[in-house]
Specification:
395 residues; alpha/beta; Lyase, Ornithine Decarboxylase, Chain A, domain 1; TIM Barrel; binds pyridoxal-5'-phosphate
């Protein structure tokens, strides 16, 4: 299990994580996060998009140590709730580095954010704008545009954003109510594998910017959202390719009038930093005739594997029997819920020797895992997480 032959994952990250696991007793399931990898991913994103300010989307991994490391690196934060605001402030972020990126806010949430000193808000409706104007008077707002593309691995659907015409009305209303209408945002959908995926929305933003200019609202901020990919079973395109494609498109459409640029990466910063250690609860078959085995881990959809929904995110697994003969398995979680199954439509191939009590490590598990885990479903504890720093110490 010590080497990562035939894997696209980072050898150093893996070695630091398994070194810690081999020298420390860690009850499973446990997510181990290598903060040095978060630093490296941050540096890679910064050099790929040097003109964009990085607002880490906290929901991807709200581990306090992760937030603290990003505070130290000079990151800003995209938050969705009073709880995430509090977390960032506690870890040393100042309120001017916090953007309230959730278009869905109760009046009490806006009041909380304002009280905490947050002055930048996302919006996509005049109702929300009126609430912000009342409870966070004078704040800066940007309007989120609806994204119709569904080419992301985890698309956002139609839950957020508004059409360009509506965005003009939303920001005009904001201005009339005394807010500062700074610009536009969009999110192309999570885990985008095409560097060209931002193009359509940048073009749309430029069209809306022209309409806003006619209303005497110059575009001063463009928030390019998240969506930058992490590597799972296959290597995602280099982050530099995204920077190049996005930069070229921005030059074409904004040229001399380049607005302040923001990005909100989530998974691209944290996914590859995480490893989930699990234990096999059982391996069994449903009938004597079945050739597919069911492998039950002590972690499932309710304690870490939320992103297996739809089977779009496919993690790389490592076992103690790697290299030996394999056969098809359905991978499932430990609870009594029939939906607590991770991969069924597209079975994994795992060693035939795999047995109850064996360890299974899941790579690239740092994003949308602990943050999605349920509190105590069926009596199973929420997934615990542990951060380690170079050279393999807990932090
Ligand atoms: C979740 C989220 C992100 C992060 O998305 P990734 O695909 O993980 O990069 C960014 N912005 C907003 C508004 C989000 O809700």
């Amino acid at each position: 299990m010590k080497t990562l032959e035939g894997s696209i994952h980072n050898q150093q990250t893996y070695q630091r994580l398994v070194h810690y696991l081999s020298t420390n007793e860690v009850p499973t399931p446990c997510l181990l996060i290598d903060v040095q990898t978060v630093r490296e991913r941050f540096a890679a994103l910064r050099s790929a998009l040097p003109d964009a300010e990085i607002f880490y989307a906290v929901k991807a991994n709200p581990q306090p140590e992760v937030v603290r490391v990003l505070v130290e690196l000079g990151a800003s934060f995209d938050v969705a709730s009073p709880g995430e605001i509090q977390l960032c402030l506690e870890q040393g972020a100042t309120p001017d580095r916090i953007s309230y990126g959730n278009t869905l806010k109760k009046r009490s949430d806006i009041a909380f954010a304002h009280e905490a000193g947050v002055r930048l808000f996302a919006t996509d409706s005049t109702v929300d704008v009126a609430n912000i104007a009342e409870l966070a008077p004078g704040a800066s707002v940007f309007c989120r545009l609806l994204v119709s593309s569904t080419s992301a691995t985890q698309p956002f659907g139609r839950k957020f954003g508004c059409s360009g015409d509506m965005a003009v009305d939303v920001l005009t209303t904001a201005k009339r109510l005394g807010l500062d209408p700074v610009g536009l945002s969009f999110h192309v959908g999570s885990q985008h594998l095409s560097p060209e995926a931002w193009q359509e929305q940048i073009e749309e933003s430029a069209r809306v910017a022209a309409k806003l200019a006619a209303e005497d609202i110059p575009l001063r901020l463009l928030n390019l959202g998240g969506g930058f990919p992490a590597s799972y079973q296959e290597k995602s395109p280099e982050i530099g390719m995204f920077g190049t494609a996005i930069g070229r498109c921005l030059d074409t459409h904004f040229g001399q009038a380049m607005p302040r640029l923001l990005i909100e990466p989530g998974r691209a910063l944290v996914a590859e930093a995480g490893l989930l250690r699990t234990e096999v609860v059982n391996v069994s078959r449903r009938t004597y005739e079945d050739d597919v085995r069911w492998v039950y881990l002590d972690a499932g959809r309710y304690n870490g594997f939320a992103e297996c929904e739809g089977e779009g995110i496919r993690y790389e697994l490592r076992t103690e029997h790697d290299g030996k003969p394999v056969g098809p398995v359905v991978l499932a979680g430990p609870t009594c819920d029939g939906d607590d199954v991770m991969y069924q439509k597209h079975p994994y191939q795992l060693p035939v020797d795999l047995a109850a009590g064996d360890r299974v490590d899941v790579l690239g598990f740092g994003a949308y895992s602990t943050s999605f885990a349920s509190v105590f479903f069926n009596g199973f504890a929420p997934l615990t997480a542990l951060c380690i720093d170079d050279p393999g110490r807990a932090c």
